[in-house]
Amino acid sequence: MKIGYARVSTHDQNLQMQKDALLASGCEMIFEEKISGKSKDRPELDKLFKTLRKGDILIVWKLDRLGRSLKDLIELMAKLKDMEVTFKSLNDSIDTSTATGRFTFNIFASLAEFEREMIRERTLSGLSAARARGRLGGRPKGLSKKNLNIAKSIKILYDKEEKSMEEIAQIFGKSRTTCYRYLDIASRL
Fold first, then answer.
1. Across 15-19, 62-66, 103-107, 108-112, which has the greatest mean pLDDT?
2. Which of 16, 24, 91, 155 would be a feasible disulfide site paired with 62, CB 3.0-4.6 Å?
3. Residue 24 burial (CB < 10 Å; 0-12/13-18/19+)?
4. How far apart are CA 154 and CA 147, in angstroms?
């Protein structure tokens, strides 16, 4: 049986292009996921592996849809080989049922990891250069004016000892952990 796996990294992205290609390649079943490839917790991929049987063919639109690191991809390929399941990547022209396909897989997986590492290095270099010019990246430290007022209110309610932190969290629509963090900040003011 041909089984497809489609994945996008964010909920804003669309799976339709991948699904269309998988259906055109003859997939009888497609597992879809909207989750980062870095995530170790990919429930649809887990379901897919529970569904696969000896002789099945796992098809993806592109190699990076299956895994983000070379180590991860190699582990998945070894698992597929142990299950006697072949793998095809439509855009990368990889078919592990052949020696050439297995060789191509190893080259493409290495190149994909190399590309991600290059992007990471360029990003870190850019951040470093920005810091050298006095620019800081990331979210500003501390709380916004609105959240600072909420923190002060949380401290007042907590100090009165009339409500539990759970009740205070419900009042402000925050988690208990956030309320304790806000309490800590307000206590240092």
1. 15-19
2. 91
3. exposed
4. 10
Task: Identify the CA nearest to 62 among candidates 118, 6, 16.
Answer: 6
HSE-up of residue 120 (Cα within 13 Å, Cβ side) = 8
Active site residue 9: yes
Q: Using one digit for the tens of pLDDT, what is the confidence trace for 143-170?
A: 888 888 999 999 999 999 888 999 999 9
Looking at every residue in the chain, the average pLDDT score rounds to 87
Among residues 9, 25, 69, 153, the one annotated as catalytic is: 9
d(CA 25, CA 59): 8
Determine the angle formed by the axes of helices 176-187 and 165-172, rounding to 10 degrees: 100
- Distance (Å, rounded) from C-alpha 136 to C-alpha 128? 9
185-to-103, 149, 158, 179, 181 alpha-carbon distances in Å: 56, 11, 13, 10, 6
Tokens matching residue 32: 């879809």
Please, what's the b/e burial string for 159-172 (b: 16 or more CB within 10 A of its CB; e: otherwise)?
eeeeeeeeebbeeb
Beta strand residue intervals within 57-143, DSSP E: 57-60, 86-89, 94-95
pLDDT tens-digit series, residues 55-99: 999 999 988 888 767 778 888 888 998 999 999 999 988 898 888
